[in-house]
Each structure stands twice: as C-alpha cells, then as structure tokens.
Recover the amino acids of this structure.
C-alpha cells in the first residue's frame, strides 16, 4: 500500500482518551494528532487539514457540534465522528443531521472506533 | 449552702418555665362558654334586682297614696266634728252631728287599721286612736253637762285634745306627702341610673370578652401563618387555664404533627426528584472515567507484550485513578441520596456548598453555564443536617441553571452577614426573572413557573421548610429581567440546641 496515510485528529477534554487513542490508531496506520479543546484543534486544522476528525461532543467553550459545523464549513470531504456520553443521544442525532459521519457512545473499546474509522477511510478512498 | 443554692435556682427556673411547660390538658378549665354564661347571668340578675326594686318602690308608693287618701278622709271627719263642736259651744246647736263625724272617723281608722299600721307603725296608730277617743270622751262629757258650765270648765281641755288630734294627723299627712315625693323622685331616677350602670357594665364585660376572643383569634391567625410558612413546632399557649381555644390548640397540634409528617415525605420525594435530575448528569460524568478505564485496559491487553514496563505501570496507575474517580462520583450521589434520619451536626457551610456545586457539576457543564464562586474565608460554623442543606443548595442551583440562559451565568457566594449572627448563601442567575405578580407565590407548595412536567413546584417550598427547621430563612432578594437572586440565611451556632430552641 503506497497510499498516503490518512490524517486523524482526536479532540477530547479527557486527556487519557487522546493519550490512549494516539498509539492505538497509529498502530492501525494513521497519522494521529490529539487535542484537549476545540479551539486549538480548529486552529491546527486551519494550518493543515485532516481527513478524519474524532471529537467529544461535550466540551467547555467550543463543543463537538461547533467543531463539526466549522470543519464541514471548511471542507465537506472531512469525516467527522462524534463521541457522545449518556443523555446526549438526542444531540448525536442532531449531529448526524448536521452532517456527522457517525457517532460512538462512551464507553467504547479501541476496536469499536477503529471499525468506524475504517468505514470512513474506505469512503474517503473511493 | 451551695447545695441549697442550687436547689433554689432550680426551683426558680421551674417557676419561669412553668407556664410554658404545663401540659395543655392539665391546666384548669375556664371555658369561654362558662365566661359568657356567667356574664349573661350577671346581667339577668342585675335586671331582675332592678325590676324587683321598682316593683317594691311602686307598691310602697301605692300604699302611701292609699294611706294619704284614708288620712284625708279622716281629717275631713275630725275637722267637721270640730266645726260642730265650735257651733255647739258658740251657738248651742246640737252635738250629735259632731259625734256622728267622730264615729265615722273612728270607723275609717278601724277599717284601715292595717294600712295605717303598716305605714305609721303601731305606736302612731295607737296615738291617733287615743287622741280620737280622748276627744270623744271630752265631747261626751260636754254633752252631759250644762252648756254654760261646760264652756267654763271643759272648753280648754276639749280644745287641747281637738287641736292635738288635728295637728298630729296634719303632721303625719305632711310627712307622708314628703315621703311620697321622695319616692317618686327615686322611682324616676332609678331606671336612668340603672341604664347607665348597665351600659358601663356591658362596656367593660363585653370589651374584656371581645378582647380575649380577638386576642385568641389573632394568635391563631399568627399560628396559621407560621405553619403556612413551614414552621411545624407545636403550639404552647402561655395561659394558665383551659378553654375552647385550648381544644383548638390541641387540634392544631395534631394537624401540625400530621403536616410535619407530610413535609418529611415531601422533602424525601422532592429529593428523589432532584436525584432523578442529577442521575442523568452523574451517569454522563461516570462515562468519562469508565471510558478512560475501558480504553486503557483494552490497549493494555492488546499491546501487553510490546509495551515497556514503565508504560504498563503508567496505564495501571491511570486505571486505578480512573476507578477511584468513578468511586467518588458514585459516592457523592449516594451520600446525597442515602435515606437517613435527620442528624444535626456542626458543619462547614463552604464545604456543603462546594459539595452541592459538585453534585450539579454536570448540569452546569451540560447547560454550558459559567459558575462564579465567591467564598469568604474563615467563616464560623453552623449546625444542620448535611443532606438537607445539600438538598437546599442543589435545588437553588438547579433552579438557577434552569433559569439562566444557555451559556448563562450563575453566581454563588457564602459570607457572614455583618449586621447579624447569620451566614448568607446567595445564588444568583442571569435568567429572565420571575414575573412580579408571581413573586409572592413562589414559596407555595406545588407552585411552579416551569413548564408542565418540568417542575414539581416543591423545590422552594421544601427548601424553605428545611431552612426554617434549621432556624434560618430563604428570601427572594430580587428578580428583574437581568436575573434572580435568592439568599439563604443560616444562624451561626455553637451547639445543636441553639437551633432546637429557635
């Protein structure tokens, strides 16, 4: 596979999420950068776009929905995957209607996320 | 000596507490009914006495007038007798006419002897009779003797007796006339005086009764107000005796016990409601450490053979700390939810407020509220029930979060009131405010401004009940279109008993 590695951005204000997902996803052959808030993530996206964005929905200041809206406004090619917690399934539906690729509910296993990312990657490569 | 002194002061205290501490049932009974019946009986007795007196005085007057008539007739007869006597002595007419008149006079006296005796007494009657018979004797003697000789020898005596008889009767008539006039005046003035006394009596007795009733009614109005505001301490009227109001007080106390019981049920059910709200947030919050643990454990297993010992150790440490985090989240909710008997303890209010903020932490995050805290340092402690106080602050915070706009602002402060011995906790939101015409009703149970199904209308009423129980109060400081602010005042106390006695 001489294809260019897909770039993934993980945003979650729980730092352990980024800390664990980065090596887990890199192992699957992606380039991963992690962020703990929406603002820095969006700033970084402006510097260099990402193919897949995995973002927690509930964050202080800029939340997942805003990240979703801003990124899709910049590039509708980017696949945005939303991480939700309990009681925000409604919001997840809202996210889907706003153009999110999919959502995953906490708690999840690395493989659950990998499956979704893989689907997203396949769509991107078509 | 010291022993003695102790006993004395003990007795003194007993005397002071006396009134308040005698059980309602063992106080002597003086019912309102008895008081009203007594006062009415007094009035009736008084009226009866006055009527009797009037009756008596009128019949006395009747007798006197009758007597005056009799004496009048008698006077006519004896005056006639005297005229005939003079005629005889001067012109030599016969004496029979005079004697006939004397006979009539005697008949009058005899016929009415009872009446006359009643008015004048036996002594005077006897005097009159004697006067009459003396005169008659003299007259008869005159009749028997030669006329010229009689004029010479008997006239002076005859005159003396005749004069005495007439003047005595005359005196009596005058005296009795005076008497009748006096009694008439009395009979005229008596009723006026009676009416006056009656009015004064009615005024004082009526006033006293009304005042007692009104005071009791007012007291009970105050009780209902107090109970309405959630103060469920029993009524202990400071009166020495029992009456109908004592029975009412007992009924009130039964009602208060019942209400108190219901209040406890309400507090509990409201707490369950609050827990319901908090659980959603707590479950969400719990998902974070769970997710962290699941990710960490999964990857630890996945890469177990490739990870360095140091990396493994870090992951295990994360697992431990995230599990502890889960534990503390659950424990916090359980501490709040646990059903337990009210226990009054010495508490650090700031700590309680901080715990309450942590309990609603997720609601704050979900609503993207900015929470500003401002706590004064080194505040004195208060006494209260930890869970109940948390319930109050959780409720006020949830209300504030509900009221604040999305991305709104909630401020909470704890400080000492510089003017009183109270700690003040103020919760302020920047919501649209409570409409002015509803502000007076917000502490009523089941009153809510929230949409149907959203609020039970119990929060503030239950909170007020709790705070009152702890000797404090909640008030709405202000509610304008720029926001609403509530302040909870709690007394600074050094022992639990200080709260109980409030």
């Amino acid at each position: 596979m001489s294809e260019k590695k897909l770039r993934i951005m993980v945003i979650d204000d729980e730092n352990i999420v980024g800390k664990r997902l980065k090596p887990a996803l890199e192992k699957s052959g992606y380039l991963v950068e992690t962020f703990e808030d929406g603002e820095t993530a969006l700033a970084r996206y402006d510097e260099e776009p990402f193919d897949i964005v995995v973002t927690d929905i509930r964050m202080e200041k800029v939340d997942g929905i805003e990240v979703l809206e801003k990124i899709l406004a910049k590039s509708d090619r980017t696949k945005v995957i939303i991480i939700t917690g309990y009681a925000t399934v409604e919001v997840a539906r809202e996210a889907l209607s706003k153009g999110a690729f999919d959502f995953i509910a906490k708690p999840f296993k690395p493989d659950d996320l990998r499956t979704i990312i893989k689907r997203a990657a396949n769509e991107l490569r078509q | 000596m010291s022993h003695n002194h102790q006993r004395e002061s003990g007795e003194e205290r007993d005397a002071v507490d006396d009134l308040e501490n005698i059980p309602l049932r063992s106080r002597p009974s003086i019912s309102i009914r008895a008081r009203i019946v007594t006062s009415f009986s007094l009035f009736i007795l008084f009226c009866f006495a006055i009527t009797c007196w009037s009756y008596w005085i009128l019949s006395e007057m009747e007798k006197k007038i009758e007597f005056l008539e009799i004496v009048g007739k008698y006077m006519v007869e004896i005056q006639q007798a005297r005229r005939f006597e003079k005629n005889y002595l001067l012109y030599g007419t016969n004496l029979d006419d005079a004697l006939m008149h004397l006979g009539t006079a005697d008949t009058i006296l005899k016929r009415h002897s009872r009446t006359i005796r009643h008015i004048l007494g036996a002594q005077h009657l006897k005097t009159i009779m004697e006067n009459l018979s003396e005169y008659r004797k003299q007259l008869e003697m005159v009749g028997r003797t030669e006329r010229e000789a009689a004029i010479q020898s008997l006239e002076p005596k005859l005159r003396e007796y005749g004069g005495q008889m007439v003047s005595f009767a005359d005196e009596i008539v005058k005296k009795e006339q005076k008497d009748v006039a006096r009694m008439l005046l009395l009979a005229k003035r008596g009723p006026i005086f009676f009416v006056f006394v009656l009015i004064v009596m009615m005024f004082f007795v009526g006033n006293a009764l009304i005042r007692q009733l009104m005071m009791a009614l007012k007291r009970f109005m105050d009780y209902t107000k107090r109970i309405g505001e959630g103060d469920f301490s029993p009524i202990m009227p400071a009166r020495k005796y029992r009456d109908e109001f004592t029975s009412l007080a007992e009924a009130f106390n039964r009602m208060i016990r019942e209400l108190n019981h219901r209040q406890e049920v309400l507090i509990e059910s409201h707490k369950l409601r609050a827990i319901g709200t908090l659980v959603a947030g707590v479950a969400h919050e719990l998902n974070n450490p769970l997710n962290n643990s699941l990710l960490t454990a999964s990857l630890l297993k996945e890469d177990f053979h490739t990870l360095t010992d140091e990396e493994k150790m870090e992951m295990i440490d994360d697992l431990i700390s995230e599990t502890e985090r889960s534990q503390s989240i659950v424990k916090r909710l359980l501490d709040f939810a646990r059903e337990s008997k009210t226990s009054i303890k010495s508490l650090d209010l700031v700590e309680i407020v901080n715990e309450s903020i942590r309990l609603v932490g997720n609601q704050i995050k979900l609503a993207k509220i900015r929470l500003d805290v401002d706590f004064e340092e080194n505040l004195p402690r208060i006494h209260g029930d930890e869970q109940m106080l948390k319930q109050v602050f959780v409720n006020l915070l949830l209300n504030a979060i509900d009221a604040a706009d999305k991305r709104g602002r909630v401020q909470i402060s704890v400080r000492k009131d510089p003017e009183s011995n109270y700690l003040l906790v103020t919760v302020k939101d920047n919501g649209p405010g409570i409409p002015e015409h509803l502000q007076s009703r917000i502490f009523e149970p089941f009153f809510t401004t929230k949409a149907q199904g959203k609020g039970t209308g119990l929060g503030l009423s239950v909170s007020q009940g709790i705070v009152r129980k702890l000797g404090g109060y909640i008030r709405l400081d202000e509610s304008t279109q720029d926001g609403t602010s509530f302040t909870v005042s709690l007394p600074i106390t050094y022992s639990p008993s200080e709260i109980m006695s409030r």
